[in-house]
Automatic annotation (TrEMBL):
This is Dehydrogenase. Pfam families: Gluconate_2-dh3 (PF13618). The chain crosses the membrane at residues 20-41. The keyword Transmembrane applies.
Length: 259
């Protein structure tokens, strides 16, 4: 664990994780600015980010049964380990709640990549390909599956070039430094900029934290618990006349089949 008593004065100015959670609806997809990625939403830690054993992964609905979502559909085991370590640095666990690993965010990303979204199935992907304006977004030929394949390999390669170790073997501080290089666009990648890949990884990480557990992430609806979001309620009819605020236990889409 990092020494919490030794505080960098620059870190004092960074947005806390609590503030981030309150405002994340406005910042999803935006560009992170600042220093180490792992501290941008609150917690400073130099722990090495390790991966969660899929067999021991929590079930999204919290019913104690085996979790069918903890199964890979696109990633190789090595790609999953890199992604799982990276998302935890972007959304780390702290005193406010679980991090991306416990929330199974890497599985969410894996399942999205295995879908039509990962193949850009509903988007025009034919040439010609020319560099676009900043407001036009990505204009290249790679689909999201290819971008993640190239990007995760680039994370691994950059880790070995920078520290002579695999990304999953690095300390938290070293992992942050690698991801910050991607955030700043300082890593050469074929077909896409490292900055674009980092922003795509970050946005899908946040989506995995808050999406319905049906899609693989937000295990036990713990991401919703962080924001006191009630999830998918069938009705609020019995509360219409209530004057006092009531905390509602969240429900996921999968719970609706019981009604």
């Amino acid at each position: 664990m990092a020494d919490q008593d030794k505080k960098d004065p620059l870190l004092e100015k960074r947005t806390s994780r609590r503030s981030f959670l309150k405002n994340s609806g406005l910042t999803v997809g935006g560009l992170i600015v600042g220093g180490a990625v792992g501290t941008l939403i609150g917690r400073e830690t130099n722990e090495t980010t390790t991966t969660v054993d899929p067999k021991k992964a929590p079930t999204p609905q919290g019913d104690g049964k085996a979790n069918p979502n903890a199964a890979l559909m696109f990633f190789t085991p090595n790609q999953f380990d890199i992604a799982n370590a990276a998302v935890e640095r972007i959304f780390p666990a702290d005193d406010n709640g679980p991090g991306a690993q416990e929330l199974l965010v890497a599985y969410f990303i894996d399942h999205q990549l295995a879908s039509g979204w990962g193949m850009n199935a509903k988007e025009y992907m034919s040439g010609p390909f020319y560099p676009g304006e900043e407001t036009q977004g990505y204009q290249g030929s790679l689909n999201r599956q290819e971008i993640f394949t190239v990007g995760l390999q680039a994370i691994e390669n950059h880790s070995k070039e920078k520290y002579e170790k695999s990304f999953v073997e690095l300390s938290g501080e070293e992992q942050d430094a690698v991801l910050t290089d991607f955030q700043d666009g300082n890593v050469e990648m074929k077909g896409v900029s490292s900055n674009y890949f980092f922003n795509l990884l970050r946005s899908t990480t946040i989506e995995g934290v808050y999406a319905d557990p049906l899609y693989g992430g937000n295990a036990n609806m713990a991401g919703w618990e962080l924001k006191k979001y009630p999830g998918h309620q069938m009705s609020y009819f019995n509360m219409i006349e209530q004057e006092e605020f009531e905390v509602i236990e969240p429900k996921s889409l999968s719970s609706q089949h019981n009604h």
